[in-house]
Amino acid sequence: MKKLLMIPAAMLLGTAAAAPKISAQSIIVNPVQPDLAVSVRVDKDPSGNATPTYRTGENIRISTTVNRDAYVYLFNVDANGEVTQILPNRLNGSNFVKANTTAVFPAPGANFTFTVGEDVGLNKVLALASLTELNLDQISSFKTQQDQFATVKAKGQQQLAQALSIVVNPIPQNSWVSDTAFFNVEARTPVQTGSLFVGTNVANATVILNGQRLGSANTTFTNIRPGSYPVRVQAPGFRDYTTTITVRAGATTNLNVEFAQVVTPAPAPVVSNQFTLSIRSSVNGARVFVDGQEVGTIRNGGLTVEVDRGATEVVLIAPGYQTFVGRYNVTRDAQITITPTR
After folding, report:
1. Mean pLDDT throughout 138-158?
2. What's the whole-number average pLDDT of the chain?
3. Greatest pairwise CA separation for the chain in angstroms
4. Which residue, 24, 51, 157, 231, is the most exposed by fewest CB within 10 angstroms?
5. H and E: helices and strands count for the chain
6. Is 125 exposed, middle or buried (0-12, 13-18, 19+ CB in 10 A)?
């Protein structure tokens, strides 16, 4: 089957007993029933009685069992009639299977896979067992030295059956037998995804979904698997916006973020605890005391001092004048005039 994908390596043989079977549905049927028996199976149907379904791109294993030492030839006919020669190939070097053993392709532990292609519909796997080695040069060949699998010239089950009949015609009828397994190929169902649109009222906002940065806001993000996710939207100069959204398959989830400007509170006004007190007096040279401390003398009709908020005592002493004592409640810059008496 041309669309099957293969990565070369060696094919191994396992041991497992299986009851021989001759299928009347085989595309090539021996007119006699020899004592040689072969059975072919796909891994989803070990019984060989069903038609299991594989999806395109899915791995498949094919096994065959014989009751006598025989050469086994495996072919796959896909839904479009293209034929792939599975065995023999250049991966394992031999298609000889011992009696009552099972050859599996790919073998357990092989470092390659055999993958169903994209041609949907019914597939048939034909196993032809022969006591003598057959010459298949008339129906298949390796096109290049790099080919791991031979190209089959026949197309469709009818041409393949005719070609194989010519190959087995020269040998005794009791020395070969065939069996066929069937499986369906279905198209792989694409993973349904949803979309997320994040709109904002500012520029340079960034969207983070489930811890992963998606990109800039005011954008529709696609191919998101359905589910609930935490969302964080960030913008310079603004507080982060966080929420949880739900993405649904085949739909777009809308998230609109209105950022509020981060307001830096104005510093509290500084309340001064000192004020300017201007003391006016006509007695030049008078000594001035404020709250018991001498702060200076009257010059040019006045003196300006700094005083603390609250109750303040001002004393003015000058020769020939009575001592002046005044008390004031200072709450702002102020001016007082002192006229001492003689």
Report:
1. 85
2. 85
3. 159
4. 24
5. 1, 28
6. buried
